Amino acid sequence: CHSCWFDENYGDCESITGYGTSELFDVFGFVEDFPQSWTFEMPFGEEDFTGNFEFDELKFCLERPGGEGAPLVVTFGDNRTPMGSHEDDPVAENIEYLGDQLVRLSELGTTIAQDAALMETMPRHEWDMAWGYHDAMMTSISAALLASGFVDDDEGAEADLLASAEDDESEESDSDDDVEKDSDNDVEQDTNDEDEQDSIDDDNEEVQDDFAAIERFPYDASMVFDLAKTTLERANLANDYGPTDATTRTKSTDSTSFEEGDRDEDKNLAYDGSDLIEWINSNGGLVHPNIRIGLDPSGQYRGVFVKDVVKEGGTGEGIRKGVTASIPWDLIIKPQTYSKSTYWSCDAYNSLYKEFKLGDESKYAPYVNYLKNQPRGRLPAEWTPAGKALLDTILDRKGKAKDDQSGLPPQENLMGYDDVWLKECGGEDTDLARAAFFQFTSRDEDTLMVPFFDMHNHSNDPKKLNCVIEKPARPGLPFVMRATRDILPGEQILISYNRCHSCWFDDTYRDCTSFGTYDTPELFDVFGFVEDFPQSWTFEMPFGEEDFTGNFEFDELKFCLERPGGEGAPLVVTFGDNRTPMGSHEDDPVAENIEYLGDQLVRLSELGTTIAQDAALMETMPRHEWDMAWGYHDAMMTSISAALLASGFVDDDEGAEADLLASAEDDESEESDSDDDVEKDSDNDVEQDTNDEDEQDSIDDDNEEVQDDFAAIERFPYDASMVFDLAKTTLERANLANDYGPTDATTRTKSTDSTSFEEGDRDEDKNLAYDGSDLIEWINSNGGLVHPNIRIGLDPSGQYRGVFVKDVVKEGGTGEGIRKGVTASIPWDLIIKPQTYSKSTYWSCDAYNSLYKEFKLGDESKYAPYVNYLKNQPRGRLPAEWTPAGKALLDTILDRKGKAKDDQSGLPPQENLMGYDDVWLKECGGEDTDLARAAFFQFTSRDEDTLMVPFFDMHNHSNDPKKLNCVIEKPARPGLPFVMRATRDILPGEQVFISYNRCHRCWFDDTYRDCT
Asked: Where are the beta strands (DSSP E) in 572-689?
């Protein structure tokens, strides 16, 4: 119930909170998702005689009412701003200040955000949280700038502002035309009197002054607005802000679209495939009745899923191991002559094109019409010239001949329309032919186009992959799909688009009837996406010196990149592939490989800080081309960084030379050990001497080769250690592990553990996987209630616990989930509280001390199950308890470095609202111990005013009215329970959310109904 609360009536609001998004970050240590509320304090006007400024406050609400991927909406002011009023709209000084801050924040993102040495001075979560808040501020400031009306669009900001003034003039004129004598005051008004004209002239002068004011930027004002647009684009947020709607005080936007016919429009994005499934089933085929077609979790692609029991009417068994679909031969589009071992043919391409031309008359019409409605331009080969030029730049192929194999992979387009369809197949050059060709190359199974099969998404993750296909052995047989294990309700059914490739997870290649040749770059090229881990990469690179023709010999570096531990686990690099002999180093990188990859990593990094920020360039192509190009850019930076750090050349504690020499000494030691055990060979009757001169010469040669190798990487046009630091930073910024250990020659892998910060257990969550069963049992056995359909577990990010409704199949919940009403009731005797309680008291030293006393009692506390849970929480998660290095970084981001504590300038939050020193030590006179510090920060981040309530504080936060589903009732007086109520029915699998700043000033219900 804050001031931007979605219910302007503030219904069901017990209290009105003062926390905005910045205060939630300060007190609870996270950046909330939309909707958000922001307040920026900024200097206003000229300095007074004391050198101080008057401060102005710009408040706005930032929401995305259409949900994920929908436009952002900015409301200046909040729910208390009178309807139709512009009193809280920004003025020129606000725009100037926010513009300066946006540029400063952007510069920090391309300078100190890349500083690997600085990152290592603090725990990883401090670095991530600081930059996460930095990004949130850039987003909010960008949205406010673009919604302000000052944005310099088609005819310039001045034109916008003048148009606004002309609208005012027109409104006044229209109003005055209808004026009559006022019977109460008997005053005659003239619509064109001189006073009114003077007023209009003043308005125009004020507008001119406003625009002149933003010209005080130390750079071109349009650059600031371009930066704001780029910021939102890069954050996958809409940026095309329209005119102000004075009635609602909002500024809305639609996602940027590229106008070129229907190139980027998916006419059946929400297509559920029911007609296609019915067509298959009614023509002798089978699609399992527990299957549905729908959008994948990203909301961008369709996929095939097992029906949920409650929402979609599936059965609890899901899909058992076995057949999921059988597509009859007569429903498959195929060439006139079919062979299982033929992988492409012009006849196959032409077969689909013929059906495209037939359209509704085709015998495959339900399938063909689905294909014809697919969006155009999603594959790199059919991108616009601007998109292709950007990709060529990223791949270091700009200006090079088509047959030039240098640059980054993929080296050539494998399914080119011009080369294959037009030249080799002699096909027609029409829009329909182009559409049919690219639908074929991105959906076929060799020479077959199989309905339903081509709607399955791809994965090579053995934990996710759950389905295989059986191609017809001969004409007339069906195309069959089989589940390789039981697939549970709600799971996606996934196949591999390059099954049994050279890095396949099962290196025995059991059940492989064909072998995929595509690596990760080719999947991007042919299908238009970057696959998740595991990945496989092959880099072709010049090797040695130019020959007399000016050409180079090319070397190939292959490696597999996987994350066997799953999301958040270390990356593992394997040089070579499954065909490399076990224990062999024949595919390990050499110095020339490292030099080439290092050069490319630096080049890619520079592109990310230069043309990636070019708003004008971005506008020359469709948004999906820009996003896909930079997504692939990031994937290459990750793969190259991992290979560099796994190579053994990395310059760590004692330098790369020491590592390489140690490797050579290991080889020497192994040879020596081997020779100590040598005996006369009975077949050859040859006596071997373990220390003969030939062997010593070989060892000397090895050492010389190592010295040469290290000397070779010194050919970098920069400090070699900088390259490895950049590689580490790349993986850190991508939330991937970077602390690579020594090579394991047996498995040819290089593994890593996530970087950790050694300072006691500051960053360790000892009960991250805690399921809360003992706490729930303690509550229920002491007169309380926690709904039996509730479970405690990790949220989808895997970083935080949350409260969920049990799933029917996996967790034994009931199909009804939780009905609207009570979800939990915590007895007064189980709540940690101050000696004197009042519902209207929001904090007290007695309340803080009550928890500290229980912390000291530990196992002897009457609240031991709850207290021990709290004591095991990780330390250092809140900004107020960060390390000095983390706090200094945050001060730099907030533009507060070197400023006095009471200086209110800089970005929000302007002060720490729950400071240990100021509140606990000074105001409360508390003890200064580690236990006291832990108790204080657990209280300030988990309390409900003066109460510490078990189970309640495990709920996560949201102000999204679509997610928010639970409210609390504080005890009106001592002795009453603390009650939690579901505001609607909550389905199995859903998370139970509360609001940490309910009924705030941007609350979605601006009536504030039920807010007391």
From this structure: 572-575
Measuring CA to CA, how many Å separate 845 from each of 363, 919, 925? 78, 8, 9
Find, among 293, 468, 446, 436, the residue nearest to 364 by Cα: 436
Identity of residue 350 = N
As a whole number of angstroms, the distance between CA 3 and CA 1003 comes to: 5
Backbone phi and psi for residue 2, each to the nearest 5 degrees, phi listed first: -80, -175
The C-alpha atoms of residue 168 and residue 170 are separated, in whole angstroms, by 5
292-304 pLDDT tens trace = 998 766 566 789 9
Residues 500 and 280: their CA atoms lie apart, in Å, by 29
Q: What is the DSSP letter of 581?
A: P
Contact 640, 685 (CB under 8 A): no
**According to DSSP H, which parts of 314-468 are helical?**
346-358, 365-372, 385-394, 431-443
Given this model, what pLDDT does residue 447 score?
92
Alpha-carbon distance of 812 to 485, in angstroms, equals 21
Per-residue model confidence as pLDDT tens digits over 730-780: 777 665 533 332 222 222 332 322 222 222 333 445 556 688 999 999 999
Q: How many other C-beta atoms are found inside a 10 Å radius of the C-beta of residue 82?
A: 10
Exposed e or buried b per residue across 782-814, where buried means at least 16 C-beta atoms within 10 angstroms of its C-beta: eebbbbebbbbbeeeeeeebbbbbbbbbeeebe
In the block, residue with structure tokens 């700043």:
997
Which pLDDT does position 145 carry in this prediction? Answer: 86
In tens, the pLDDT along 794-845 reads 766 566 789 999 988 778 888 788 999 999 999 999 999 999 999 888 888 9
Closest by alpha carbon to 488, among 317, 314, 325? 317
**What is the C-alpha to C-alpha distance for residues 797 and 801, in angstroms, rounded to an integer?**
9
- Rounded CA separation 324/482 (Å): 5
Cα separation of 528 and 106, whole Å? Answer: 30
Cα(468)–Cα(954) distance, integer angstroms: 41
Residue of 498, 569, 564, 492 lying closest to 534 (CA atoms): 564
Nearest alpha carbon to residue 104 among 911, 897, 735:
897
Q: In whole angstroms, what is the distance from residue 777 CA to residue 960 CA?
A: 31
How far is it, in rounded angstroms, from Cα 937 to Cα 848? 9
Closest CA to 914 of 208, 28, 268: 28
Tokens 């006022």 belong to residue: 182
Tokens of 204: 């125009």
Handedness of CA 273, 277, 280, 283 (dihedral sign): negative
Q: What is the pTM of this model?
A: 0.54
How far apart are alpha carbons 74 and 90 in whole angstroms?
A: 12
Helix 365-372 to helix 431-443 angle (10° resolution) is 100
> Which single residue is written with the structure tokens 């929400």?
270
Beta bridge partners of 260: 262
Of 254 and 219, more confident: 219
850 or 501, greater pLDDT: 850
In this structure, what DSSP letter does residue 791 have?
E
Contacts of 171 (CB under 8 A, 6+ apart): none
Residues 6+ apart with CB under 8 A from 934: 855, 871, 873, 875
Q: Are 607 and 637 in contact (CB under 8 A)?
A: no
Whether 482 shows a pLDDT value over 50: the answer reads yes
pLDDT tens digits, one per residue of 580-638: 776 667 788 888 888 888 888 988 989 988 888 888 888 888 888 888 888 889 998 99
Q: At what angle do helices 591-609 and 385-394 cross, to 10 degrees?
A: 140
pLDDT, tens digit (0-9, with 9 covering 90-100), for 372-424 = 988 888 788 888 888 888 888 888 877 776 666 677 878 665 447 888 899 99
Which is more confident, 983 or 874?
A: 983
Tell me the C-alpha to C-alpha distance, in Å, between residue 688 and each of 664, 669, 675, 696, 698: 22, 17, 8, 14, 15
Q: Report the distance separating Cα 908 and Cα 919, nearest Å.
A: 20
According to DSSP H, which parts of 561-622 are helical? 591-609, 615-618
